UniProtKB/TrEMBL annotation:
<keyword id="KW-0677">Repeat</keyword>
<dbReference type="InterPro" id="IPR035979">
    <property type="entry name" value="RBD_domain_sf"/>
</dbReference>
<dbReference type="InterPro" id="IPR000504">
    <property type="entry name" value="RRM_dom"/>
</dbReference>
<dbReference type="InterPro" id="IPR034206">
    <property type="entry name" value="RBM45_RRM2"/>
</dbReference>
<protein>
    <submittedName>
        <fullName>RBM45 protein</fullName>
    </submittedName>
</protein>
<dbReference type="InterPro" id="IPR012677">
    <property type="entry name" value="Nucleotide-bd_a/b_plait_sf"/>
</dbReference>
<keyword id="KW-0694">RNA-binding</keyword>
<dbReference type="Pfam" id="PF00076">
    <property type="entry name" value="RRM_1"/>
</dbReference>
<dbReference type="InterPro" id="IPR034207">
    <property type="entry name" value="RBM45_RRM3"/>
</dbReference>
<feature type="domain" description="RRM">
    <location>
        <begin position="21"/>
        <end position="95"/>
    </location>
</feature>
<dbReference type="GO" id="GO:0003723">
    <property type="term" value="F:RNA binding"/>
</dbReference>
């Protein structure tokens, strides 16, 4: 199964290599690459592990990368590893790694950001931000609202969002006055909802019609 990409995403191979198989983790500074591999090999086949070191002293910065062979393995590692690792999907290699490391480390140290949704919200792609000096963390839930200027077909929309594992239901509604499309999507985990929003917000379906995907309050504590 391939996750549908927006036209700006490039080829699936590029996305798979750069965005879906490499994770970024916070580790004890005493860890070696062998230690890192040992901790994360239970989640899948590891292509390589690397530890980020100070260029001057050669000492570990307490950060590292783990590259898996499959996107599903990287997703499982993020979902199931101990939260102290603060695992997230790594930025593509063509982006500034030093800037990414600095932002990740700074955000990880912020005491007001807690809970399992934290790893995703360290990366801008997983939260809705305005291009302004003040950035506001978007509340996360397992439920999504999908809006379109064209009406939805239940079966087609279900098939689209069912590409992300954990879909529980897809409820399509239609406004008889505007003929626009509206649907409520719910997943079994917040992680699945976050990933679906990340991949499908702004996606053209059908071509030329962009979907708007936002989180809906699901009655649960978002920190869970």
């Amino acid at each position: 199964v391939f996750i549908a990409q927006s036209r700006a995403s490039g080829s699936h191979r590029d996305v798979e290599d750069e965005e879906l198989t490499r994770i970024f983790v916070m580790i004890p500074k005493t860890y070696t690459e062998e230690d890192l591999r040992e901790k994360f090999k239970m989640y899948g086949d590891i292509e390589y592990c690397s530890i980020i070191k100070n260029k001057t002293t050669g000492e570990s910065k307490g950060l590292g990368y783990v590259r898996y062979l499959k996107p599903s393995q990287a997703a499982r590692a993020i979902e199931e590893c101990d939260r102290s690792y603060r695992a997230i999907l790594a930025e593509p290699k063509n982006k500034s790694s030093e800037s990414f490391e600095h932002d990740y480390y700074s955000n990880s140290m912020r005491p007001e950001l807690r809970g399992n949704t934290l790893p995703f919200c360290m990366q801008p792609e997983f939260c809705s931000f305005e291009k302004a000096e003040t950035r506001i963390q978007e509340p996360v839930s397992k439920r999504l609202s999908v809006v379109s200027r064209l009406p939805f077909i239940q079966e087609q929309l279900f098939a689209l969002f069912d590409l992300v594992p954990g879909l529980e239901y897809c409820d399509v509604q239609r406004d008889p006055h505007t003929n626009s499309g509206y649907a409520v999507i719910q997943y079994s985990t917040a992680a699945s909802a976050i990933y679906a929003k990340y991949k499908l917000h702004g996606f053209e379906y059908p071509p030329g019609n962009r979907l708007t995907v936002i989180f809906l309050e699901d009655g649960n504590d978002s920190s869970e």
